[in-house]
Specification:
24% of the residues are buried. Helix content is 48%, strand content 20%. Strand 2 and strand 3 form a beta hairpin. The radius of gyration is 14 Å and the shape is globular. It has one domain. With 121 residues, the chain is of the alpha+beta class. It has a 4-stranded antiparallel β-sheet with strand order 3-2-1-4, covered by helices on one side. Helix 1 packs across helix 3 and helix 3 packs antiparallel against helix 4.
């Protein structure tokens, strides 16, 4: 439950943090300093719960916020997750953020027209 509470708090504060600070700074700030005792399954469960609570609280809901929370949860479970942002080749104004484990997207299919433009770490 500690991870759930942390992720819910994170979902609520990310919009404000990203207005005040650059994305890489926020990612460094939310990056885990140590490992919480959570399995991969537990991390995914905590992400789902935080997304449900965020919807009920009417917190801003974009792929950016969802992927930042997902990345944090997986990193806290000790997994080598990568936060990724990209744009579509045919529509450079259309972007998306997602998380990868071992080069594969986590929890979603990625449009093959997307080209990664930012990875962390």
């Amino acid at each position: 439950m500690v991870l759930d509470a942390y992720l819910i708090g994170l979902r609520c504060t990310l919009p404000t943090a990203l207005k005040a600070l650059p994305l890489p700074t926020v990612l460094r700030w939310i990056a885990p300093r140590g490992r919480l005792r959570a399995t991969s399954a537990r991390a995914h469960q905590a992400v789902a719960r935080s997304e449900n609570v965020a919807r009920r609280l009417n917190v801003a809901d974009t792929c950016l916020y969802r992927s930042m929370v997902r990345w944090t949860a997986l990193k806290r479970a000790g997994l080598p997750a990568t936060f990724v942002m990209g744009v579509r080749r045919d529509e450079p104004d259309t972007g998306h953020a997602w998380v990868e484990l071992d080069g594969a997207p986590v929890g979603e299919a990625i449009d093959e027209r997307l080209v990664a433009t930012f990875r962390f770490p």
